[in-house]
């Protein structure tokens, strides 16, 4: 008996540079993903955030769980630069993670450079 369609959480087990972004998604590692992404040392995950207001301590739980492997988190806030909410900034600081908000395009470019330098970087990218 068939179980029908099984929907799994989007996950790519590894690190990869972003090849392209826009039209509501990203391309990386010869794949494409529609929606926002968390780029972490453990892999690349779909992220349910679609606007800057969704950047919360709860939405970044996976980042905080991997804090030991992350020195810096780039947060792509969409089309425009917006500040990181104070509780999020504090939770990241308490976990020993530096953070910087920027537009998603700037975050993608910075992430790719830091990844190429083999830095302990992660990114939370809102799709544009």
TrEMBL record:
* InterPro entries attached to this UniProt entry: MTH938-like_sf (IPR036748), NDUFAF3/AAMDC (IPR007523)
Against Pfam families, the record matches this protein to:
DUF498 (PF04430)
- SUPFAM superfamilies from the xrefs? MTH938-like (SSF64076)
What is this protein's record name?
Mth938-like domain-containing protein
What organism is recorded for this protein? Rhizobium paknamense
Q: What is the lineage of its organism?
A: Bacteria, Pseudomonadati, Pseudomonadota, Alphaproteobacteria, Hyphomicrobiales
């Amino acid at each position: 008996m068939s179980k029908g369609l099984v929907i799994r959480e989007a996950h790519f087990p590894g690190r990869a540079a972003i090849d392209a972004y826009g039209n509501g998604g990203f391309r990386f590692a010869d794949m494409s993903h529609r929606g926002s992404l968390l780029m972490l040392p453990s892999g690349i995950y779909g992220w349910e955030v679609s606007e800057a207001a969704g950047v919360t301590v709860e939405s970044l739980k996976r980042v905080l769980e991997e804090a030991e492997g992350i020195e810096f988190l780039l947060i792509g806030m969409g089309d425009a630069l917006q500040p990181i909410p104070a509780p999020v900034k504090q939770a990241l600081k308490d976990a020993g993670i530096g953070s910087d908000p920027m537009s998603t395009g700037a975050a993608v470019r910075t992430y790719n450079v830091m990844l190429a330098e083999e830095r302990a970087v992660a990114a939370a990218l809102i799709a544009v």
